[in-house]
Specification:
GO terms for molecular function: adenosylmethionine-8-amino-7-oxononanoate transaminase activity; pyridoxal phosphate binding. By secondary structure, this protein is α/β, with parallel strands linked by helices. The chain is built from 13 helices and 16 strands. The model has no long low-confidence stretch (mean pLDDT about 95).
Length: about 425
């Protein structure tokens, strides 16, 4: 029998709640999550589903974790929030210290932001203001490669893929940036030369190059050679252009390195982190930069970074982020990610035999099945739920980024569900 309470929630949801990337009212009925613990979501009418998405890649330690719960409770007893203008507090200071210590060498200054997209806004603003402070306002464009995704606020939309992405609606309104071709998966010298020439040709007007290192996330879940990052670093250095890495999806171990920049053994001028920063508990992100960038801005006519969110440095989020980082670094996270990588490779190999599958790829705790057609999201979701798993396909992709605490049995269940979703989608 239908649950009247759940039916009422769904009615109100349809009438009033606008879900991400959806119409109003929604065309697909969402599942109602009643609680979550470990790697499982308790869903009304479906029992427990293993979460194959880490809640959009953020809940790396799973749900209802006692260490993170205790960090939140302890901070609530002290203060949940205080303005950051003119004030500071230990959770924010300790978080900045941890981020500097664990990030690529040379990133020494931390701006705490509300969300990943806002951290990209801040990064691009840093780069623009840097050049204005140095008396070069003509360096005002960004270069990126096609196939990327950097968020849904204004400047980040301008550096998302202009054709295959979600923001084509804003063509002619967004700032017009410079786009190189999408990076091939393997290293090709001809493409490296394309990157060099594109940077050189536009250097006089470029404030920065911004890319997702090694893995392009929501733009298509594509992987590329770390060698291209070294090409960009060398080209930016040669032509006096800043380099920004968007590590919002790749940071905190997801690719098998603490940060994807480590695959190329280099440091960007600016780096954005988010998603897994608080272990999926609260919204928080950060933009890190080198002393060169910070000092350049400070020498300008306006010697301050003109940005200050109301909830910047929120103590509750910062305290949980510190606990999440300590939890990650206090265990053999790399062994767990490698274990997940091996399980994904084994389990998703069966998808290669599914009709309509174009490619299967795995890196770290990321598993992707790409189809030769748009996924029927409703059918694919039903197939995964029937296997006891939650995944969220998009475009031509059925993929999984499970929590690092996912056990081998649950991992096998996730891969079966991804294969089933690919088959039915």
């Amino acid at each position: 029998m239908p649950d009247p309470h759940i039916e009422e929630l769904l009615r109100l949801d349809r009438e009033h709640v606008w879900h991400p990337y959806g119409p109003m009212p929604g065309r697909q009925q969402p599942l109602v999550v009643e609680s979550a613990a470990g790697v499982r979501l308790r869903v009304a009418g479906h029992g427990e589903l293993v979460d194959g998405m880490s809640s959009w890649w953020s809940a790396i330690h799973g749900y209802n974790h006692p260490v993170l719960n205790e960090a939140a409770r302890g901070q609530l007893d002290r203060m949940s929030h205080v303005m950051f203008g003119g004030l500071t507090h230990e959770p924010a200071v300790r978080l900045a210290q941890r981020l500097v210590e664990m990030s690529p060498a040379g990133l020494e200054h931390v701006f705490l932001a509300d969300s990943g997209s806002v951290s990209v806004e801040v990064a691009l603003k840093m780069c623009l203001q840097y050049w204005r402070s140095l008396g070069l306002p003509e360096k005002r464009r960004m270069l990126t490669w096609r196939g990327g995704y950097h968020g849904d606020t204004w400047q980040p939309m301008s550096v998302c893929d202009p054709e295959g992405g979600m923001h084509g609606l804003w063509a002619g309104v967004l700032p017009e940036q410079v786009f190189a071709d999408a990076p091939p998966s393997a290293y090709e010298e001809s493409y490296a030369e394309h990157l060099r020439q594109t940077v050189e040709r536009h250097a006089h007007e470029l404030a920065a190059v911004i890319v997702e290192p090694v893995v392009q996330g929501a733009g298509g879940m594509r992987f590329h050679s770390p060698a291209y990052l070294r090409v960009l670093r060398e080209a930016c250095d040669a032509h006096d252009v800043l380099l920004v890495f968007d590590e919002i999806a790749t940071g905190f171990g997801r690719t098998g390195a603490l940060f994807a920049a480590e695959h190329a053994a280099l440091t960007p001028d600016v780096m954005c982190v988010g998603k897994a920063l608080t272990g999926g508990y609260l919204t928080l992100a950060a933009t890190l930069c080198t002393p060169r960038v910070a000092q350049g801005i400070s020498r300008g006519e306006v010697p301050v970074l003109a940005h200050g969110p109301t909830f910047m440095g929120n103590p509750l989020a910062a305290a949980v982020a510190c606990a999440s980082i300590d939890l990650l670094l206090g265990q053999d996270w790399l062994a767990e990610v490698k274990r997940i990588e091996a399980g994904l490779r084994e389990g998703l190999s069966a998808a290669r035999e599914v009709p309509g599958v174009r490619d299967v790829r795995v890196l770290g705790a990321i598993g992707v099945v790409q189809l030769d057609h748009e996924v029927d999201i409703a059918a694919a979701t039903r197939a995964a739920v029937a296997e006891g798993v939650w995944v969220r396909p998009f475009r031509d992709l059925v993929y999984t980024m499970p929590p690092y605490v996912t056990g081998d049995e649950d991992l096998a269940r996730i891969t079966r569900a991804v294969c089933a979703a690919a088959r039915e989608g």
